[in-house]
Write a structure and sequence with these properties.
Layout lengths: L10 H12 L21 H17 L10 H14 L3 H16 L4 E4 L6 H6 L28 E5 L3 H12 L4 E9 L2 H11 L4 H9 L15 H10 L3 E13 L10 E3 L6 E3 L3 H6 L4 E7 H17 L13 H7 L36
Parallel strand pairs: 2-7
Antiparallel strand pairs: 1-2, 3-4, 4-7, 5-6
Helix pairs in contact: 2-3, 7-8, 7-9
Length: 366
């Protein structure tokens, strides 16, 4: 380029300068979280400290007689980091969602690295005592990490829509939207659409797509015509359509449509971004994950049955942490009989729970 522009002194330099001026930075349009309404005499940071202090007294007792040594000191250190990074509003929003779930009898539990935070435990966002278990807060949040913290909320799946609509109602559909999933072409889908584009009949499209081995991107072992295979191979990994992220919602201090395009979802009362989670993060949009979990619904049913037949009402915090049966089981030298599953669908007898003929089964849920 320098050689081509040699006849025009100064043009290359001015072109580079103009390009620098035209370079777009998403920080220019990056939204903030909405200001949290706090009582008179407080800002977001002081109100968060107030809520955490109240929760810490319930969880740990007063500082002079704390039930877990070092708990209040750890909480103070975490709050300093949260204020330093300007995230009090984020924690207030998550706390509000959790409190809504609690007020409506919806089981809700924070998970992931948030369990490393004593502040999250004091606020009731998580049920794991990070201080007692010696968990590392910096795995969750530290000055050296970019971006806001990531708190995933598991919500019983049957009532998750109530929580989503609460968020829409509180912040408005213009300021809140769900994150999209960009669905890319996979082998069978690519073959079907390629055959349709080339004019083959619906029957041929179905037959060829069903004959595809998912491990074979172009179906070379089938009788698919070469033009269809070639076009399908070119289509693989290209975006096909948008879906809705399993739980991601963004909340902004101004209409989300000013930052990225949005659309009404098929389901009533929902607004969806046309960006995926990575694009949202690049634009500075803060995402909250509200995830539906079937096991929480199953636990809620169990709590109802225990209350009905035994007169005791449990919640996620009051479940006994250890029982003789589970302690014996987990202490068994071999764990070859134990199985874990995120959806609770795999069950195997634990060797520590009795003979093979026993109807007692052991399960772990994470």
């Amino acid at each position: 380029m320098e050689r081509r522009l040699a006849r025009f002194p100064g043009v290359r330099e001015r072109t580079v300068a103009l390009a620098e001026e035209c370079r777009f930075d998403f920080d220019v349009v990056a939204p903030r979280l909405p200001d949290w309404p706090v009582p008179d005499g407080h800002d977001e940071a002081s109100w968060l400290r107030r809520l955490v202090k109240e929760g810490a007294l319930r969880r740990y007792g007063p500082p002079e007689r704390e039930r877990v040594t070092g708990a209040h000191e750890q909480i103070a250190r975490e709050l300093d980091v949260i204020e330093q990074l300007r995230f009090p509003g984020y924690f207030l929003i998550v706390h509000d969602i959790v409190e809504f779930c609690r007020s409506k009898g919806i089981l809700c539990q924070g998970r992931g690295s948030a369990a490393n935070s004593a502040v999250c435990y004091a606020l009731g966002i998580t049920g794991v005592d990070a201080v007692r278990h010696g968990l590392l807060f910096e795995r969750f949040l530290s000055p050296g990490r970019d971006g806001p913290p990531d708190i995933d909320l598991d919500i019983e799946h049957r009532r998750r829509e109530e929580v989503i609509q609460y968020v829409y109602g509180k912040y408005g559909r213009t300021h809140t939207a769900q994150v999209a999933n960009v669905i890319s072409y996979r082998p069978r889908m690519a073959v079907r659409d390629a055959a349709r584009a080339l004019g083959f009949s619906p029957g041929q499209q179905d037959a060829w797509s069903k004959s595809i081995d998912p491990r074979d991107p172009v179906g070379t072992e089938t009788g698919i015509p070469a033009p269809v295979r070639e076009l399908a191979g070119r289509m693989l990994t290209l975006p096909r359509h948008l879906g809705i992220h399993s739980g991601g919602m963004v909340i902004a201090d101004r209409p989300v449509g000013e930052i990225c395009p949005i659309e009404w979802a098929t389901m009533p009362g929902r607004t969806v971004l046309q960006w995926d989670k990575d694009d949202c993060a690049a634009a500075g949009l803060v995402k909250f994950d509200l995830l539906g979990l079937g096991m929480l619904a199953a636990l809620h049913d169990c709590f109802d049955l225990v209350a009905e037949h035994h007169g005791r009402r449990h919640d996620l915090q009051s479940i006994p942490r250890t029982t003789r049966r589970s302690t014996t089981c987990c202490a068994t030298p071999t764990r070859s009989g134990c199985s874990r599953s995120s959806r609770g669908r795999r069950w195997r007898r634990c060797p520590g729970c009795g003979p093979a003929s026993s109807t007692t089964w052991w399960w772990r849920w994470h």
